Amino acid sequence: MVINNKSSNHSPWIFFLLVFILAIPFWLFGLLTQQLLQKEIPINLPISALMFVCPMIAALILVYRNNGANGIKQLLSKAFKIKIKRKIWFAPIFFMEPFIMFLAYGSMRLMVGSIPELDFSLLKILALFFVFLIAGICEEIGWQGYAYDTLENRWNAVGASIMLGVVWQIWHIIPHLQLHPPAWILWQCAGSVLLRVLIVWVYKNTGKNVLAAAIFHTMNNGCSFLLPNYDSTIAPFSMFIVTAFVVLIVTFLWGSKTLAQYRFIHNR
């Protein structure tokens, strides 16, 4: 990609600031409407969740400022690159999050006992996937497509992932507060910071494929909403515990420095 991530004009901190500024109208609108609408969106998200467009808009503004229309074209082409050289990576992209969800569901049953069965209606799964895919693409154009590589120039892959994940979740706190109690928000944000490590892992091992990162992000969102009692604290807590174990395994096998050097294969 021609856009120079090392340029002094390409600052993740300016990007983060702009993302937060752009989100303010969505936060305010969410606060104004939460008393009028019991469920603003059918899948129990606040109106302010529509701020998912902000990372994409911020990235496009900054890329256009530095590189003009050609920069926008390159960023969008990076975001919609479908080809993945190593086809085996389709497995974690589509199946790792369902695996984490099943383990989280099992842990919920152990901790709580009797909870509703998982609901796998095809219509519900497809609806969740396509709704969250749109949001995932818009977010990852900014978080991975624009901001992440510059962060990795300063920290290792895990450090950059955690940094990006923390900013990402601070950005989500106000929408969370419009629907959920503090304990739910704590475990949801902690799990999502770890999720960012897995998103980066997929992104790095698919040739910095933003679409792959967006689909993985989508699978996490969809699987989370398929969990019964999603609005109870036990659901994000269970996802956090399982995700933490998966992140430890991934970091051990692929290395914290790059998340892309599998320790048992030296010449891939």
User: For the CA atoms, what is the radius of gyration?
Assistant: 18 Å
Strand/helix succession: HHHHHHHH
Number of strands: 0
Average pLDDT score = 88
Shape: globular
Euclidean distance between termini CA atoms: 23 Å
Residue share in helices?
55-70%
Measured by DSSP, the beta-strand proportion falls in under 5%
Outline the biggest β-sheet. none
Which class of secondary structure composition applies to the elements?
A: mainly alpha
Number of helices: 8
| Oligomeric nature of the chains | single chain
Poorly predicted runs: 1-8
Q: Helices, strands, pairings?
A:
Layout: H1 12-33, H2 54-79, H3 90-112, H4 122-152, H5 157-177, H6 182-205, H7 210-226, H8 234-254
Write up this protein.
This protein has eight helices and no strands. With 268 residues, it is an all-alpha fold. Helix 2 (54-79) crosses helix 4 (122-152), helix 3 (90-112) packs across helix 8 (234-254) and helix 4 (122-152) packs across helix 7 (210-226). It is globular. The model is unreliable at 1-8 (pLDDT under 50).
